[in-house]
Amino acid sequence: ITVNKTIMLLIRRNEDLKEMLESNKESLKLEAMKRIVGLIAKGKTASELFPAVVKNVASKNIELKKLVYVYLVRYAEEQQDLALLSISTFQRALKDPNQFIRASALRVLSSIRVHIIVPIMMLAIKESSADLSPYVRKTAAHAIQKLYSLDPDQKELLIEVIEKLLKDKSTLVAGSVVMAFEEVCPDRIDLIHKNYRKLCNLLVDVEEWGQVVIISMLTRYARTQFTSPWKEVCNSDSEDKKEQAQNKPYIMDPDHRLLLRNTKPLLQSRNTAVVLAVAQLYWHLAPKHEVNVVSKSLVRLLRSHREVQYIVLQNIATMSIQRKGMFEPFMKSFYVRSTDATHIKTLKLEILTNLASETNISIILREFQTYVKSQDKAFAAATIQAIGRCATNISEVTDTCLNGLVLLLSNRDETVVAESVVVIKKLLQTQPSQHSEIIKHMAKLFDNITVPMARASILWLMGEYCERVPKIAPDVLRKMAKTFTAEEDIVKLQTVNLAAKLYLTNSKQTKLLTQYILNLGKYDQSYDIRDRTRFIRQLIVPNEKSGALNKYARRILLAPKPAPVLESTFKDRDRFQLGSLSHSLNSKATGYQELSDWPTVAPDPSVRNVEVIEPVRTPPKTFSHPCKHNVTLSCCESSSSSEEEESSDGSEKSSSDSGNMSSSSEKSFSESESKQKVKKKTKKKSQMTKTQLNAADRYSEDGSFLNCSVAFMRVESHCNAQGVPGRVYLLLHSPISRLYAAARFTHNPNCRICSCLDFINVLFFQVTTPSFGPMTTHELLHHMTGKGLSAKYQFPRQPCLYQPSMVAVQVILSNNSDHCLEKIHIGETSPASLSIHCFNTIERLEPEASVMVSMGIDFSDSTQAANFQLCTKEDQFSVSIQPAVGELLMPRTMSEQDFCKEQGKLLGMNETSPISFYYSKSIISRVADARSALLCRFAAQTISSRALVLVSLELKEATAALTVNTEKSVMASVLLRDLKQAFAQV
């Protein structure tokens, strides 16, 4: 009756939902879909409603359409015929202005597992892979895997799409396309070459699921492209060459180091899978002395749930076998707790046993004494096995462990006694001559032991060392003859063995007993025992049929046996990649890809070089200075006579180029400076070749160089012919915009200062006020999403008029529709604590018209996006403004002494340790031309809280060291990340 009532209620509920879905009110349909999705989330079936739901797939209500697509993704594979009826609707939805609708339509389309629509799916994936929305491109990457599983013949076409998506610069797409690569063509390593460095640099910003996939793929990639950092491979035959190879230090490939450097910060991730992925990468790729960095992060994961602890402990157990030193400082973290599950206790016990050494064995054994008393019988037995392993591996404690195990033989718990007997038997095989008393003691306890394995172990000891206990062994055999028929098979087999050995060594006392036991075994129910009995009889009892084998009976049965080796169960698991399912199961799982061995010779690293299309460069210019010496921007040394002849033509070109300055540069100078004429230097003036210009003057049209070029510079002190030091203040573009640098340099006419060190432009201007380069515009709202209304924003880098703690933002609103837009204003903001000064409501915006408005936003010194609603009279659009860290800073001028003084106050927890960058020989030679190292100091303060930010960049020899000191420790990490990405592009 209860079941029938339940069924009737479900039918009535479904009828109600059907009526709501077929009504004319959008609100009822939306409520019905919410309830249906709720049922699906609870695990209840709602397949009967498929016809009613699919009718609403063409609804104009976006929220309703999203819920319908969620339902269709769940049941499209089950209801394929009905889903095919709406396939034209899905195709139209692929052109919808809303990116979520386009993505949902593709997801539903790829969920219909019918071969007839494979061409349609292929076409949809190709179009979506070129979509403007990264969310849609991400969905296309997911659809690739579904289509490949449905029709593997489409592999070649799908590889073309994967190759295209691998070039995508969006962090949202990276993880998904790498997963598609792993599913479709994991052997096509050539597709990764050009994208390797990009994936390494994007790794920090990819979502956690994508990080795991990318790290796993890059681990396999690195094992095929780089040489082993663990040992030197020497193929030379001569001794001299071998000695040279041994003395030659290992030089890690820069791309290999890039991977290790960019994955190391992910050890602080909150996601367990990410931390474990980085740990396995370091284990398989990093030099041995660098692997220890993963220890602390792995131990941190032991505070998680049991399931996480189990997997992490398995990987730690494998690591601790080969490298005890990694986890020895964290030994207390592996102490067993009473609340731990049995499988967790066993793994911790395994790790403690692996970490045991001469220095800490006393502490571990005291811990084991407590574990033996545990109420968990399986754990207590495992502890006794661990004690036996410690006794075998560390000879200094063998006797101590044996004595302790003998004491456990009087324990009331049969499981503990049985396990102790088994372990003692294995230990006695190592030193049998010294422990006859222990064998006698075990014989006395034989009657009280009931566990079959323990009884069999004692019988084996008696037979193996029967000559050492000649009086006790026959008595034990006598007792076993009485209870032979009632014993377990394993005990019967050892009894037959004991009888045979005693027959050979003491036949006078045991001949009749042996014959009696052999007769009992001859008619036993187990065929194993019957066969063993017949074999033993023919072997030890001479007769006409026994043949020549009888002569060797003693050598066969009493042959010396090698002592057993007590090893960890995790010893051979290192053949599987850490963190994989195969490693956890200790057997090769379906789809497992083995790591290849390190190549003897590294493949050509140039395959990872990406061609950079450089913009048109402006030739270097000469600017006058109040001091009597003109500063010429050049990387050349003193010119020769041949160069002087070429310089005559070059001087005319340079003068014309200097006169034709870009309009953006003219706007950045003051009027007085724009009228000032550039003086020409007529003596020994060298002309730069095109190659030198490309190498030295990397000044692009928009005033940026590798996201880090100089916008202006001011010389404070005069420089004379003797080379008096001067101080230069540099203003850099994004991502470290608004930062001032104080750089020490020496001017000498005989040694021109390098104008570009491949990452910084040095432009000498006679200005004393900041001159910013052209502003970068970011898209705030696309006209398709905004129903004709588009919005872009930019940071003017000027003080905010509304409040000093706010960042000034300019928003450009455009009407791309054919009708007027009214009441354009800002609605709700998020988070609630966000302080924002809104622009005044725009009452009317004509078609094809644009207007620029100003806003002020207090980001509270955080790069968290400011979310708000951009509203019109009829619609609301959710938008967000994401500031770069440089936009949260304002310049602060200070002397070198003040800089060093403030830097000294910000040491310790507010300091981010230096990061080294390695540069080419050409840069080193140009630094040598300057006859000194280059030290740049950048000073700024945050707009919101006026917190001081100090950055030091020192270029010396072949490295550039970067140090960040700030009162905002959170900003330090973000700033260092952006700086690192900017400078590492060189």
Automatic annotation (TrEMBL):
Matches recorded under SMART domains: AP3B1_C
Composition bias, Basic residues: 677-687
GO biological process: intracellular protein transport; vesicle-mediated transport
Predominant cellular place of this UniProt entry's protein: membrane
Superkingdom: Eukaryota
Cited SUPFAM superfamilies: ARM repeat
Gene3D superfamilies: Leucine-rich Repeat Variant
Domain (AP-3 complex subunit beta C-terminal): residue spans on this chain: 724-864
Entry keyword annotation includes Manganese: no
Sequence segments annotated as region (Disordered): 638-694
Cell location: Cytoplasmic vesicle, Clathrin-coated vesicle membrane; Golgi apparatus
Gene Ontology, cellular component aspect: AP-3 adaptor complex; clathrin-coated vesicle membrane; Golgi apparatus
Membrane-topology annotation of the record: Peripheral membrane protein
Biased composition (Low complexity): 656-667
Alphabetical UniProt keywords: Cytoplasmic vesicle, Golgi apparatus, Membrane, Phosphoprotein, Protein transport, Transport
Family annotation (InterPro entries): AP3_beta, AP3B1/2_C, AP3B_C, AP_beta, ARM-like, ARM-type_fold, Clathrin/coatomer_adapt-like_N
Keyword Phosphoprotein appears in the UniProt entry: yes
UniProt record similarity statement: Belongs to the adaptor complexes large subunit family.
Physiological role: Subunit of non-clathrin- and clathrin-associated adaptor protein complex 3 (AP-3) that plays a role in protein sorting in the late-Golgi/trans-Golgi network (TGN) and/or endosomes. The AP complexes mediate both the recruitment of clathrin to membranes and the recognition of sorting signals within the cytosolic tails of transmembrane cargo molecules. AP-3 appears to be involved in the sorting of a subset of transmembrane proteins targeted to lysosomes and lysosome-related organelles.
Protein name: AP-3 complex subunit beta
Organism (species): Takifugu rubripes (Japanese pufferfish)
